Amino acid sequence: MAAIRGKNTKPELIVRKWLWSHGYRYRLNVKSVPGKPDIVMRRFRTAIFVNGCFWHGHRVAMPQIDNGEMIIYNSECCKIPKTNREFWVKKITRNQERDQQNYRILQENGWYCIVVWECQLKPKLLEHTMQQVELQLNQNFLSIYQRKPILFSESENEYLMVAEEE
Ligand SMILES: [Zn+2]
Predict the structure, then answer these.
(1) What is the CATH number of the domain that holds 121?
(2) Cβ(117)–Cβ(58) under 8 Å?
(3) Using 50, 70 and 90 to split pLDDT, how confident is the model at 29?
(4) Number of structural domains, the chain?
(5) What is the pLDDT at residue 73?
(6) CA distances (Å), 19 to each of 105, 123, 152, in order?
(7) Distance of CA 91 from the midpoint of ligand 1 (Å)
């Protein structure tokens, strides 16, 4: 198990390296942005989180209670340890809740969030995953840019108003 939320963890480095080599520039662990995202790309108003599958509970379903017994499901990439299962489930669930809260706060502040999972960065999947990230970045950039025509209609109105006053 890797260290929790450590700086410069390997999956994050893989993402950074790909972005950098494709000409993208970013900031790291910006404290002024809610949730302290791993990678911040202001130009795209996008925060990228590189999540470890275990700590962030990738694809883990909520535990079910059956006849008073807690049934915990493992996922392909997040296997809950056999000992202290309830402890781990609580911990991972808390992390998931915190993640969701961070994403929500960011979105409320006009930021886009991209979550990249550790398991999506395996050598065979890396290129596809990062192409998806790139696509999302471009879509985000376009939606920021597409707000601009509103400015034109505003300035047209101003012009009309000036004309009316004469
Ligand atoms: Zn995973």
Answers:
(1) 3.40.960.10
(2) yes
(3) confident
(4) 1
(5) 73
(6) 25, 15, 34
(7) 17
pLDDT score of 62: 65
CA of 59 to the centre of ligand 1 (A): 7
Q: What is the pLDDT of residue 151?
A: 52
Domain of 151, in residue numbers: 10-53+100-165
Report how far residue 111's alpha carbon sits from residue 115's, in angstroms, rounded to the nearest whole number: 13
CA distance 74 to 130: 26
Q: Is residue 80 part of a domain?
A: no
Q: Which residue has the tokens 């009316």?
A: 164
pLDDT in tens, 35-67: 889 999 999 999 999 999 999 999 877 667 777
> From the CA of 61, how far away is ligand 1's center (Å)?
13
Burial of 115 (0-12, 13-18, 19+ CB in 10 A): middle
